[in-house]
Design a protein that fits this description.
By secondary structure, the chain is an all-alpha fold. It contains ten helices and two strands.
Length: 260
């Protein structure tokens, strides 16, 4: 992509439209197969709500990104893009399995750590201190933390998708202004998916994205945050994504403290 505004508008419109159309389909499948989020514990809803909204988000994002890559082939980063998409889908599958079978949190977190390490191996990790061990630890902490932050947000109507839309839109604006066109395109595609899903997720929510969708979105937000790199300042490259994701970070921190 060349960074023209209309290219971003096309990507946003396509991802939003696909998610708008597919979310009711996912809802119908969830109802038919009995995949519901039951109200209990920290859940805010009073009646069962269908899961599987994440499937619509995943398909919409993958379709819009693959379509954009075919029409506007990126000059670099193609291999990394496919690996990241594969990792995100892998986490989504794990999340879906958790929705259906209640996997152990240890299994989920272990796989998130492996995904973070893979990002590091691809030179897509945090480079704040210059010490490889410390930066690897920061990368793992960031990826696992942000991924699970969005998972925890998916217990109130519109909260996870709304935060994802805000974070992705902000990453898009910063990346586009910084000349990182591929990062901007991925961010605007993710924002479009979140906006399209919100149509069905606002109060009273008719569907939730489930762990599959939340882990998918959280991992991509974490990755895109890392990719926001400013040449003159490693600290700025770390601070800006942290500020963008400050609300999910604060929410997760408060929830964790309250459950101790």
């Amino acid at each position: 992509m060349t960074g023209e505004w209309w290219e971003y508008l096309v990507v946003f419109s396509v991802s939003t439209s696909i998610c708008l159309v597919l979310t009711p389909v996912a809802m119908a499948v969830a109802v038919r197969t009995g995949v519901f989020d039951q109200p209990h514990g920290h859940k805010s809803h009073g009646s069962p709500v269908p899961y599987l909204g994440g499937v619509a988000i995943i398909v919409a994002f993958a379709a819009s990104v693959i379509g954009a890559a075919i029409i506007y082939p990126p000059e670099s980063g193609v291999g990394e893009l496919w690996v990241v998409l594969l990792l995100a889908v892998g986490l989504a599958v794990v999340g879906l399995a958790d929705d259906l079978r209640n996997l152990s949190p240890v299994v989920r977190i272990a796989l998130e750590v492996l995904c973070a390490v893979q990002l590091w191996r691809m030179d897509a990790g945090i480079t704040l201190t210059g010490d490889q061990t410390v930066d690897l630890a920061l990368t793992v902490l960031w990826v696992v933390g942000i991924t699970n932050a969005f998972n925890l947000l998916d217990n109130m109507d519109g909260l996870a998708a709304g935060q994802a839309a805000v974070c992705a839109m902000t990453i898009f604006a910063v990346a586009a202004a910084n000349g990182q066109f591929l990062v901007a395109a991925l961010a605007i595609a993710l924002a479009g998916c979140a906006v399209g899903f919100l149509r069905h997720n606002f109060y009273p929510a008719r569907i939730y994205m489930g762990d599959g969708g939340a882990l998918f979105i959280g991992f991509l937000i974490a990755y895109l945050g890392i990719k926001l790199r400013f040449r003159d300042s490693a600290f700025e490259s770390f601070l800006v994504p942290a500020l963008i994701c400050s609300l999910p970070i604060m929410d997760t921190t408060l929830v964790t403290i309250s459950r101790l």
